[in-house]
Write a structure and sequence with these properties.
Protein name: Homoserine kinase
Number of domains: 2
CATH class of the largest domain: Alpha Beta
Structural class: alpha+beta
Shape: globular
Largest sheet: 7 strands, mixed
Pfam families: GHMP_kinases_C, GHMP_kinases_N
Strand content: 15-25%
Organism: Lederbergia citrea
Catalytic activity: L-homoserine + ATP = O-phospho-L-homoserine + ADP + H(+)
CATH architecture of the largest domain: 2-Layer Sandwich
Number of strands: 11
Enzyme class: transferase
Order of helices and strands: EEEHEHHHEEEHHHHHEEHEE
Length: about 300
């Protein structure tokens, strides 16, 4: 007998400038699954951000759940899953990472796997190929992560409610594959050393709460932003105007096309309103850092 439950996973932004494929931050938009036992697997979508639900066997969340269950020698009981989402697809806000975390947790709950956070993160990183978005979506806060030589994911987490995040969401998509194709295959030793130094200073400043320094270093990334900037309309204008209005720093969110700014707490709405006037075709919204990550609630039926 499956107890009805709700699984909630936050959106995320990755890279944060120089933290390429290693840094992520959970954001206050959410993917939510309402799960209850059913005679067969059915997915129902209730969101303007989602297409019509495919057959269960073709649904990413089901596929991840089934793979997870098989990995631990379990069989999924059939359920109906109602999916609600505030996360637009292929916009650089971690929609696939949220789905991966949701699928792993779906298997964890339905099959009573009792997976640890580390086990979930290892599974998610294996599915996604890198840990940046999935670590943030799972754990919440700012997460910096790296694979170890043993194949496990090591991570550092900071939760910070002293910042606001403005996202600039355009009305077009950018596939991650296209954004990766413009990146160089190799970096020179000098370029890699300088880019790593920028990232080191940026994260040290962010962790220490020196947001002015962190913001300056965010905008000096050499790993991916210079190569992707041409794919992002208004890239230069958004960075310039956001800083003029008081943002600490502005970068591409994940692979784009969304951009995001870190701004002083309490100033987000003012800055967002000024940018919205200049970007009428964008959705400009103030978000917070989600501090909880994955959440599960069992629904008690009376």
């Amino acid at each position: 007998m499956v107890t009805p439950l709700t699984i909630t996973v936050p959106a995320s932004t990755a890279n944060i400038g120089p933290g390429f494929d290693s840094a992520g931050m959970a954001l206050s938009r959410y993917l939510t699954l309402h799960v209850k036992e059913h005679s067969q697997w059915i997915f129902e979508h209730r969101s303007i951000h989602l297409p019509e639900a495919p057959a269960a066997c073709e649904h990413l969340i089901y596929q991840i759940a089934e793979r997870t269950a098989k990995q631990y020698g379990a069989v999924l009981p059939s359920c109906k899953v109602v999916v609600e989402s505030e996360i637009p697809l292929t916009r650089g806000l971690g929609s696939s990472a949220s789905a991966v975390i949701a699928g792993i947790e779906l298997a964890n709950q339905l099959c009573s796997l009792s997976l640890s956070q580390s086990e979930k993160l290892d599974c998610a990183s294996d599915f996604e190929g890198h840990p940046d978005n999935v670590a943030a979506a799972l754990l919440g806060g700012l997460v910096i992560s790296a694979p170890s030589s043993e194949g496990k994911i090591e991570f550092f987490q900071k939760k910070d409610d002293n910042l606001e995040i403005i996202v600039y969401i355009p009305n077009f998509e950018l596939k991650t594959e296209a954004a990766r194709k413009v990146l160089p295959d190799v970096y020179s030793r000098n370029d890699a050393a300088v880019a790593s130094a920028i990232g080191n200073v940026m994260f040290a400043a962010l962790i220490a709460g020196d947001y002015e320094l962190a913001g300056r270093m965010m905008e000096r990334d050499l790993f991916h932003e210079p190569h992707r900037a041409s794919l992002i309309p208004n890239y230069v204008n958004i960075r310039r105007e956001a800083r003029n209005f008081g943002a600490y720093g502005t970068v591409i969110s994940g692979a784009g096309p969304t951009m995001m700014s870190l701004v002083p707490k309490g100033n987000g709405e003012k800055i967002a309103a000024l940018l919205q006037e200049q970007l009428p075709d964008y959705e400009v919204e103030v978000l917070a850092m989600d501090l909880h990550g994955l959440r599960v609630e069992s629904i008690v039926q009376l």
